[in-house]
Amino acid sequence: MAAPAFVTPHQSDARDHITIAGAGPAGLACAIVLARAGRRVVVHEHQNRVGARFHGDFQGLDNWTGDSNVLDELGSHGIRANFECHPVRGGIAYDAWGATYPYSSSAPIYYLVRRGKDAGTLDSGLLQQALDAGVEVRFGNRYHANDARIVSCGPRGADVIAVGYLFQTEMPDGAWICFNRELAPQGYSYLLIHAGRGTVASCIFTDFKREQHYLQKTVDFFRECVGMKMDSPRKFGGYGNYFLPKTGIRGGSLVLGESAGFQDPLAGFGIRYALRSGILAARSLLEGVDYNSLWRRDLLQLLRTGLANRFFVTLTGDRGWRWILSHRLASEDVCEAMRKLYRPTKLTQALYPIAYLLHRFSKRPSPRE
Question: Which of 175, 211, 224, 236 has the lowest CB atom count within 10 Å?
Fold first, then answer.
């Protein structure tokens, strides 16, 4: 079912409900859990629709930053997979020297989901669940974050930018990724195909002003190496923000998702972090448990290890990515290898303090810079 363009607001006493600013995955997950526990919830979204930042592009809901399957984790909190989610168990990776690394896993490495307002997207699915649970959603309503009990307003800056094309294609389903600074400095380029839909993009962590150059190099690469064919291409772009907050509480409000910095610094994955933070915030309110204690237990080690890994590949460049490909991802079950990559080691624990200080004092440009 497609997300409605507007949900008509009605008057209510602010004292008898929980107010959430932002109708992204974190805010809606929080709203669903609260509403199903019997709490009255009002979500304010300043855009006039859900998923306004996205246009149907494929993204990955990771299955490695937890010991259980991500869909089972969501289901245990009453959040159903009523959106399209296709398990990806393998693909082809390339390094900067053209070597290929087939990778596979017995379990889904991630689930391919679409973002945006259309039927079948993650955003429209979560919105429908929230409405079914009795959540009131007010679109086109800018609510001051300082007045909300829960804040989930998206990224506050840009540490990573993805720029690419959405397109139709007759190519078979597949997943390809390339780690080459000529295509995506300090990041990666990817091509995802499912059921005649494609997303190709360059995911860059620096040199944002040359994004068009890197996108063209990425398109050329996948045309040559994979035989990519694009019909009716539509350009898209997005950005993400990660940092390690000292607290998840700001001005008395519980802060979720990218608003709090909860995004993977290594690969830029953030959907599972966002959903989990929404669930944790709901638990904090329902159970009377300190929110900071909850997110630090579930997310802090992942963020620290991700930041240390990000520092490692920044230092080592393409050779670092090649080491990860050859020694981790292509040598064993990839889902388990990714879980290991996000667990602390002596190396990541040694690198983390330096990585934290450098990132804290580095400039994080806005998308318009």
Answer: 224
Q: Going by C-beta distance under 8 Å and a sequence separation of 6 or more, which residues neighbour residue 288?
A: none
Domain with 289, as residue range(s), is: 14-54+62-84+116-157+242-298
Output phi, psi for 129, to 5 deg.
-65, -40
- Cβ atoms 152, 30 nearer than 8 A: yes
Total domains, the chain: 2
Contact indicator for 125, 151 with CB cutoff of 8 Å: no
Helix (H) or strand (E) holding 58: strand 58-62
User: Which secondary-structure segment (H or E) carries 200?
Assistant: strand 197-204
Are the C-beta atoms of 127 and 3 separated by less than 8 Å? yes
CATH number of 275's domain: 3.50.50.60
Model confidence over 57-89: pLDDT tens digits?
999 999 999 999 999 999 999 999 999 999 999
Helix (H, G, I), strand (E, B) or coil at 11: coil
Does some domain include residue 207? yes
> Is 91 contained in some domain?
no
- Provide the token pair at 325: 């490909």
Which pTM value belongs to this model? 0.91
In terms of domains, do 172 and 226 share one? yes
Residue 2 in any domain: the answer is: no
In the predicted model, is pLDDT for residue 13 greater than 80?
no
> What single DSSP character describes residue 343?
S
